[in-house]
Fold this protein.
Amino acid sequence: MKNKSERHRQGMETRRRVLGTAHVDQAERSKSSFDEPFQDLITEAAWGSVWSRSDWQPRDRSIVTIALLAALGHEEELAMHIRATVNTGASREDVREALLHVAIYAGVPAANSAIKIAKNIFDEADGEGTGS
């Protein structure tokens, strides 16, 4: 393994704290020489430079991230970050409020899709199957 920067080390620590060790370990096992530079970039930039800042708590970053991903229609990443709320401290009510903002500021279709994703994830967490 190549020598990684301190920012990369901090990014991996933050990434594991937010997304969970199992998720990060799977992502690490899945990376190839093709996407390793991309994985290093997001580990350093997103997780090491932004998520590791102390100005906001993980809960706050989680809420903003969920709203942005929902507004942009990035459903896979949105699902990942909704699942991560168990680690960030963002509540289901926080997610709901963020998605209400998405409806007003980014459009009802974006919020509708995001709400379906959130309901499914929360129902799965509660052992209730699908959230349809």
Remarks:
- The chain has a mean pLDDT of 95.
- Helices lie at 6-19, 21-30, 36-50, 58-72, 75-83, 85-88, 92-105, 108-125.
- The first helix runs from residue 6 to 19.
